Prior knowledge:
The chain is of the alpha/beta class. It has 3 domains: 3-49, Up-down Bundle (Transferase, Pyrimidine Nucleoside Phosphorylase, Chain A, domain 3), CATH 1.20.970.10; 79-324, Nucleoside phosphorylase/phosphoribosyltransferase catalytic domain (Pyrimidine Nucleoside Phosphorylase, Chain A, domain 2); 330-418, Pyrimidine nucleoside phosphorylase-like, C-terminal domain (Aldehyde Oxidoreductase, domain 3, Alpha-Beta Complex). The chain has 17 helices and 13 strands. The protein has helices at residues 3-11, 18-29, 35-48, 52-64, 92-101, 120-124, 136-146, 159-169, 177-190, 211-227, 249-260, 266-282, 289-301, 304-315, 320-324, 351-361, 405-414, and strands at 79-83, 106-110, 148-152, 195-202, 231-238, 246-248, 334-339, 344-349, 377-380, 387-388, 393-399, 415-418, 428-432. Strands 1-4-5-13 form a 4-stranded mixed β-sheet, sandwiched between helices. It has a 4-stranded antiparallel β-sheet with strand order 6-9-11-7.
Amino acid sequence: MRMVDIIAKKRNGDPLTEQEITFFIEEYMKEKIPDYQVSALMMAIYYQGMTQEETANLTKNMVASGDVIDLSPIEGHKVDKHSTGGVGDKTTFIVGPLVAAAGIPVAKMSGRGLGHTGGTVDKLESIPGFKVELTNQQFIDNVNKYKLSVVGQTGNLAPADKKLYALRDVTATVDSIPLIASSIMSKKIASGADSIVLDVKTGSGAFMKSFEDSKQLAEEMVTIGKQLERQTIAIISDMNQPLGYEIGNANEVKEAVEVLQGKRVEDLRELAIELATHMTILGGVYQNYNEATQSLEKLIDNGDALNCFMDFIKAQGGDITVIEDLSKLPGSSYKVEVKADQKGYIHEMEADEIGVAAMHLGAGRATKDDDINHGVGITLRKKIGDPVESGDTLAILNSDQENVENIINIVKDAYTIKSEKTNKQKMIYEVIK
């Protein structure tokens, strides 16, 4: 078998066999195939696409290229959640304890963030003392005892994906749906869960801007999951504006805790309950959508989910007095208001630009070596559909920089204000099963 023949076959639009895909991944990992040939294959896939069978075989081989986490010592049906990423997305901090309170074990491995804010583990490190590095035994023990643990990614999960992604990043082949789907699903399957719920974002702050592309990606990932014997469901959710009102590391932890305390942050609560509903149905705790939704609402309202969050934080060394008094979370030196220049209604928000503004404040990383500032971020005061008067506060910058004029302008320009009324955004577009 020769790599040049595989490239030519895909260039001509023919599907690759499982043997050809296995050969390409295995030989590339042994460094017997050069980057320039793999780049050529990635470009051929970008233009010609892949069948569902090809994509599943690519995913399976990327999983096999490294470690597969064994979660069998954890009792019960393990359900994982993955989000394709967005601005202000802190659902893990609500969904995890909510699902745990319902009795489903959540054993989650999360990465650090590169972009608008830190990743899940960066945000958790806003809580003094919280440890994301646990031994495998500690991780398993915590999930068995508290039904919830979140740690930094360990082991060598899907190393073929890391190599391929680095190459795709510099050859303009990142936004190929089969390659995106196999990249995401290889890591999720290697993480060992029995079932997977995917939160696929769509809109201005999402990787996939159009609903059609988001739906295609969701369908591709659900198909991969099923072909690799994982129950998989995808929820397509809105990211035409940030989720909730807080962007930043400590900011997002604070808002998630407030939702667990019963605060009605409608879009954030709605999405968290939607994700948790499907996770608990897959986990076998509830039999149908209505039963699950109503039961999960009660677990927030009666404080059970908040108690699970507190147990989880304490078990991983976090200072729970910070959760009891959220003002103890890291903060910023300055609070700068971004004011509206005209009267009207908020029609659009460029969520990506608001995320970029948060990164400029220090909430995220432009490069992987940058430090995260846990106390800075953005608090939104107006979102799509809200009325606004000239001079009203659109957002507050929580900053350690005194001069943030350029960041004020980024946030202000992210808002589109028009005179006519407009409707609030819907949160859930479609569920793909």
